Amino acid sequence: MNAPTISDKDKLRLSYEFNAPKELVFNAFSTAEALNEWWGPVETKNSAISLDFRPGGVFHFSMKFGEHVNYGRFLFKTVNAHDLLEFTNAFADEKGNPIPAPFDVKLPVEIFYSLRFTETGGKTSIELTGEPFDATQEEIDGFNSIAEDMQRGFGATFSKLTDFLKK
């Protein structure tokens, strides 16, 4: 059986600009203390469980909403300081193992993200691309069905990053 091909229409593409140098923006991804302050859905309280910020390293975190807790995991693929960050992102169990998303929509277990950082005149842009990783056609369709929700979610998360960078 052949895996479905990811086409350009199956990729999430977003761009965000921050009024900060790219070293500062990139470094906000590199420590648990920073990620605790800004990463994740705005309606959750997020806490780093572990962070190994290097290729092959893992960021394992919890997301608490009321009494309910979900876990997430990044598996870092590329870490080129201040320029490029690539990782797969997944919901996870308490031990950091990827699990299916806890939603009614059938989503890929993992999503591959690439973030490119560029600076012009003291302002940094992040060009984010996300795409299903090792997914079935049903999972790709589910990913595409929530594209607007992902855009809103990243917008809110990066708004928290903007506030963090002002500190």
TrEMBL record:
Residues annotated as domain Activator of Hsp90 ATPase homologue 1/2-like C-terminal: 19-165
Matching entries from Pfam families are given as: AHSA1
**Matching InterPro entries, A to Z?**
ASHA1/2-like_C, START-like_dom_sf
> Matching Gene3D superfamilies, A to Z?
3.30.530.20
The entry sums up its family as follows:
Belongs to the AHA1 family.
Spell out the protein name for this chain.
SRPBCC domain-containing protein
Originating organism:
Imperialibacter roseus
